[in-house]
Amino acid sequence: MREENLKRKEQIEKPEGRLGVLVPGLGGAVSTTFIAGVELVRRGIAEPVGSLTQLGTIRLGKRFEHRVPRIKEFIPLASLDDLVFGGWDIYEANAYEAAMYARVLSRDHMEAIKGFLSGIVPMKAAFSRQFVKNLDGVHVKPGGDLRQHVEALKEDIRRFREDHQLDRCVMIWCGSTEVHLQVEDIHQSPQSLRRAVDQNHPHVAPSMLYAMAALESGVPFINGAPNLTVDIPAMVQMAREHNIPIAGKDFKTGQTLMKTILAPGLKARMLGLEGWYSTNILGNRDGLVLDDKDSFKTKEESKLSVLEYILQPQLYPSLYKNYYHKVTINYYPPRGDNKEGWDCVDIFGWLGYPMQIKVDFLCRDSILAAPLILDLVLFMDLAQRVGMSGIQEWLSFYFKSPMHKSNLYPEYDLFIQLMKLKNTLRYLMGEEQITHFGLDYYMNGETQ
Length: 448
Known about the structure:
- By secondary structure, this protein is of the alpha/beta class.
- It has two domains: 3-251 and 366-428, 3-Layer(aba) Sandwich (Rossmann fold); 255-362, 2-Layer Sandwich (Dihydrodipicolinate Reductase, domain 2), CATH 3.30.360.10.
- The protein is 39% helix and 15% strand.
- It is built from 17 helices and eleven strands.
- Helix 10 (233-241) links the parallel strand 5 and strand 6 (245-248).
- Helix 1 (29-42) packs across helix 15 (365-386) and helix 7 (146-163) packs across helix 9 (206-216).
- The two termini are 29 Å apart.
- The mean pLDDT is 93.
């Protein structure tokens, strides 16, 4: 993004009118948990636990000033009451039926909003089993012409906006993990990518069709899976050309969340690492998809990269150069959405003496992901109104494998990510960024 194009404080457009939330993968456990959760919060039935935009605060100025407003009171975010949900899925079940199948939420919660969820019906999806081998879509757009699919998706967006009288939209990919792809020549420029779409190239994934349709329709795009999707030069350039923000990839939940909390602590204390073994048990549709080796490779790459960038073995070779990192995911249907993540961490301390850390995180995958989706939708809408375009690195806090500019390394440390996010908000609202350093500390004894 170019700083001269950014709007600051009073210049930022107000979040007036209705905000459409378009979700590829509308009938999944994560999507339905998010949508149902927002409606339960809107009705005062539940609390938005886990959402930084709804419950988080932000410190302003120096500590003795005691200015700590809620984030949602500090920056102009869209109201939950203005969110309108829609999207696509490869199965035709409405949001209530899909949520019942996912079995994440209690029957009391489900019955309280049955009418609302039943009214959310997915549009036919752009789908290719070549990219998600363990699913067989039945509610899909006909034929295999990729250009027709892009145009059909753009028409879906236009009609959704019109039918619901929307002022703005954000699209967030909550679909399945696609098979692993490498960046190729067709992904290098908007022209080459559009040409590949016209030629039905086999390495144009369905998620890329949604992203292209979103960007060409003026809609910000968020990638919640580890798919390549917008993490290619063509999409980055397209986002800049259309002045649209993009973000991704792969929601940071469960086991990787634990790694981004623990690993910075080990590095901060200069404790060494011999090995980190991680295994997961997961039984929902995501687990079924990842039971395919090609889809798992996409997820594995996202998970494995975390430690490398946090620990920086090139700077601390005696502590981190030769550690062994192993990640496995096991599909186990009885667990459903209740994922279990085991971590066995072999570390060493003073004089090289060995120690161990064991973590058994019995988490709920969709419960952890839902508040991330809410925050990302609201922050990306803010980014669009502010005039940000291209990769939104300040939102790395929410992703396992955050996108980054080509001349920079990605930031994986959860706490640095959070500082960057909050400093971005401070900057936009004309407040001093927090650096915990200032000459007045030394000259006048004032605390920062």
